[in-house]
Design goal:
Blueprint (H helix, E strand, L loop, with lengths): L12 H6 E12 L38 H13 L3 E2 L2 E2 L1 E5 L9 E5 L5 E10 L2 E14 L3 E5 L7 E5 L6 E7 L6 H17 L12 E11 L9 E6 L2 H20 L7 E6 L4 E7 L9 E2 L6 E2 L2 H10 L4 H12 L3 H7 L3 H12 L4 H19 L10 H12 L5 H14 L3 H8 L7 H14 L1 H8 L6 H11 L6 H12 L1
Parallel strand pairs: 12-13
Antiparallel strand pairs: 1-10, 1-11, 2-6, 3-16, 4-5, 4-15, 6-7, 7-10, 8-9, 11-12, 13-14
Helix pairs in contact: 2-5, 3-4, 6-7, 8-10, 10-11, 13-15, 13-16, 15-16
Length: 494
């Protein structure tokens, strides 16, 4: 590991405002196939090292690649969901370089004829929308995984796990349209959400299913020419992306302000020191000696195939957010939260279709269900409460048969046991069974004990009304109908 350079001097806001950052991202998305791109080996993550290998992905002499059709279909799903033009003809090439993690001595990738180009992605940041261009989406095979042991140069050992070698990747290259680390974060977050919605990838950054390299430069505000760009690798989290970009922007400005020049190079993000460190001088395209892959036919995408894939796309996040807001009367915030994942959106919609009031359903999912799931380490798919049973509970609340306080107790029991709300209410006698005469008796006692608050209410202090309602609900152990309590307390106070 190269030695970390010292952190840049913290720059003033005036100096930072003098320059404009220019950021583009290259995102590698591992496609969710069961087998590799050019052979039948499994892509399953976590298997013992070097067990999911064969002569093809190990690059042994005399072997030939065979194209996995599912790879093309998933890449087309990604491209079409990103508004790209999917080309009728594309072609693979050999990208030559010599690392231990690439047994053939070259990577099969796409170069001058990629699968798709000219797309865009819209991001929203602090209420403002911005369109980020996508230059190209192309396919390639992944390299093996290097594992290092030790830290000093003399003690370091490297091991190679070839299980990942040949795993299908889709590389999505953005235009240099981002101007802040926050925009880059929003772009990557939105891109990941779309890939998950479309089933293109599981986007698990910890397992390497989503990896990001950033190209960053700075220029004087108002200038048309780009500055010298630096590529930052090893960005395996959204937080590291933001931190690395902020570091590089300050480093570039500091170098330029001191009269220096930026070197075009590749750098690594050192998460322990929170700095970038030099990796190598920037390689040019011709260093790779690209030429057409002789062992694979060009890819042909007919208009019928493209139309078939387009029809198979699900409703995408932005369209779903807009529909939820319009069809169910949700706030933009509620619609955003409920469409965070496709599974969560499907859960809410199933709940609403089962007859639960939409606003109530949205509130219960956000305040109760997601909190419980988070505390128990479960995803929405593993929720012990189904949309049908939660709808049953919310109907009991809406009809006044359960108070909100009692319903929360029932909900907790449902989550822990998987039983239906009707069973829990019957077994524990939790129904709202306090009649109006008992409510009136409790209300009279509360009013009699609080003459000062009665005087405040009669003097026009409407706020103390909630105090009386709360005291009556406590006196009836939360089993009184809230609307009846409100009506009776107001009648007695008036």
């Amino acid at each position: 590991m190269p030695k970390a350079s010292p952190e840049p001097i913290s720059l003033s806001s005036e100096l930072l405002a003098k320059y404009e950052p220019v950021i583009g991202l290259e995102v590698h998305v591992q496609l969710q196939t069961k087998s590799k791109i050019f052979c039948g080996c499994s892509t399953h993550f976590g298997d013992p090292p070097n067990t999911n290998v064969c002569p093809v992905c190990l690059g042994l002499p005399g072997t030939l690649p065979v194209m996995n059709k599912r790879v093309i279909e998933l890449a087309m799903r990604a491209a079409l969901s990103l508004n790209c033009k999917v080309h009728e003809h594309s072609r693979f090439a050999r990208k030559n370089y010599f690392y231990p993690d690439l047994p053939k001595g070259y990577q099969i990738s796409q170069y001058e004829l990629p699968l798709a180009t000219d797309g865009w992605l819209e991001v929203e940041l602090r209420g403002t929308k911005k369109r980020i261009g996508i230059t190209r989406l192309h396919l390639e095979e992944d390299a093996a995984k290097n594992l290092h042991e030790g830290f000093s140069e003399s003690a370091t050992k490297a091991y190679i796990d070839y299980n990942r070698c040949g795993t299908p990747l889709s590389e999505i290259v953005s235009e240099p349209d981002m101007r802040t680390p926050e925009e880059a974060y929003a772009y990557l977050t939105t891109l990941r959400q779309i890939m998950l919605y479309t089933g293109v990838s599981d986007c698990n950054m910890e397992e390497g299913s989503l990896r990001c390299d950033a190209n960053v430069s700075v220029r004087l505000r108002g200038a048309k020419e780009f500055g010298t760009k630096v590529e930052v690798k090893n960005l395996n989290s959204f937080r590291f992306l933001q931190k690395a970009l902020a570091y590089e922007i300050e480093r570039h400005i500091g170098v330029l302000e001191s009269g220096g020049r930026i070197s075009q190079e590749t750098r690594l993000w050192n998460q322990h020191e929170s700095v970038t460190v030099p990796m190598r001088s920037k390689e040019k395209a011709h260093d790779y000696r690209y030429f057409p892959e002789p062992d694979l036919l060009p890819v042909h995408v007919s208009s019928a195939w493209r139309a078939e894939v387009l029809r198979s796309l699900p409703e995408l996040p932005e369209a779903k957010r807009n529909r939820f807001a319009n069809a169910y009367g949700l706030t933009p915030y509620d619609a955003e939260v409920l469409t965070t994942s496709k599974s969560l959106a499907d859960y809410f919609e199933s709940l609403a279709k089962a007859g639960a009031p939409a606003k109530s359903a949205a509130n219960w999912i956000q305040t109760e269900l997601l909190r419980r799931l988070n505390d128990s380490g479960k995803e929405i798919e593993a929720s012990p409460i189904t949309p049908a049973t939660l709808a049953e509970l919310l109907k009991l609340v809406d009809s006044g048969k359960l108070t909100a306080a009692v319903a929360k107790k029932v909900f907790a029991a449902m989550f822990d046991t998987g039983r239906s709300p009707a069973d829990i209410v019957a077994a524990e006698n939790l129904g709202a069974q306090v009649d109006d005469s008992a409510i009136e008796q409790a209300a009279r006692e509360v009013i009699e004990k609080n003459p000062d608050n009665v005087a405040k209410f009669k003097a026009g202090n409407e706020g103390v009304f909630k105090f009386f309602v709360g005291q009556v609900m406590r006196a009836t152990r939360g089993q009184a109908n809230p609307q009846s309590v409100n009506d009776i307390v107001r009648k007695l106070l008036s």
